[in-house]
Amino acid sequence: MANTSNKKAAPKRNVSSSAHPFSAWLNQQMGAIKFSMERLWFNPVSTWITLAAIAIALSLPTSLHLLLKNMQTLTDDKREVPTITLFLKQPVSEQQAKDRAELLSELPEIDKVRVVTRDEAMADFRKITGFAQTLETLDENPLPHVLIITPKLGLLDDLDMDVDNFSKKLKAYPEVDDVQIDVEWVQRLRAILRIAERIVLVVSILLGLTVLLVVGNTIRLDIENRKDEIRVTRLIGATNAYIRRPFIYNGIWLGLFGGVLSLVIVHVALLFLVEPVTKLANLYGSTFTLSGVDVFMTLQILLASSILGIIGSWLAVGRYLWQSDDGVA
Questions:
Q1: 288-307 per-position pLDDT tens digit
Q2: Which of 27, 60, 150, 294 sits at 20 to 30 Å (Cα–Cα) from 70?
Q3: What 3-state DSSP class applies to 148?
Q4: CA distance 180 to 170
């Protein structure tokens, strides 16, 4: 019978050993987060000045993007689709005008057709001009029947080609005397919007670089104030990742809180603009209203500001660590 007294018992497996590295990493992250938050408000006046500079730099491209987005709705919204007006010849009767309108409404390029008879046009002319007594002296109504066509949005994708070709097609009908296209303002507006898109892109890049410089300079000053502390931690074996970690979180908080403050600035600015813009739209008979920052755009701004904070702090700390490794710092 084998002697089992000399056999060593099998070592028990430590269940928590596999979770230990993650727990240590998590504790380091939590410690860096807590320390960076405390360090952020160590000098609140300086912090608020930095956040204000970041917020102003971020609010400008955000405001320009919102302005561009609202202007684009003038050409994208069906309520603002330009119309095509057909002036029919004088001999054309009201029934012929209605028949032609019904045939035109079946074309794939047309959304709807509205008939304005010469009597309706005369009544509108009297209201607009106030020359009612003068018009009574005329033997007959000199105004023609008019067809107001609303094209489909697909026709407006290439205004220079599609609408011009379509107007020539309409003018070829025997009842049509003249064609007037209310599209020039859309052409000009889209040309302006294309230029504005480039301007917003350039301004966004420049102000994004400004945020990087602000965050980087703030982190650099913090490094200078803690230079002796960093040297001591390196002497006791701290790695570059350990030294860099709290500064990276500090950059995240600067970017994130600066982004939140920029959103507040943009919302306040919109509140001042809503009423005058609505009144202006009503004067032109439009239901246009300003659209604000939606949830998706809010997340984009906060993510972009946080990333800018990370990049700015990473560059500042990386420069210091590189210099210290070379014996410069």
A1: 778 888 899 999 999 999 99
A2: 150
A3: strand
A4: 11
- The DSSP secondary-structure symbol of 179 reads E
The Cα 186–Cα 178 span in angstroms is: 21
Distances (CA, A) of 319 to 178, 219, 315: 71, 11, 6
Q: Specify the pTM.
A: 0.64
User: How big is the chain by its Cα radius of gyration, in Å?
Assistant: 35
Q: Residue 61's closest CA among 227, 282, 290, 293?
A: 293
Asked if residue 286 and residue 234 are part of one domain, the reply reads yes
Extract the residue ranges of the chain whose pLDDT is less than 50.
1-19, 77-80, 161, 328
Host domain of residue 260: 28-76+188-323
Considering the domain architecture, whether residues 296 and 192 belong to the same structural domain is answered as: yes
Query: In whole numbers, what is the pLDDT of the chain averaged over residues?
Result: 80
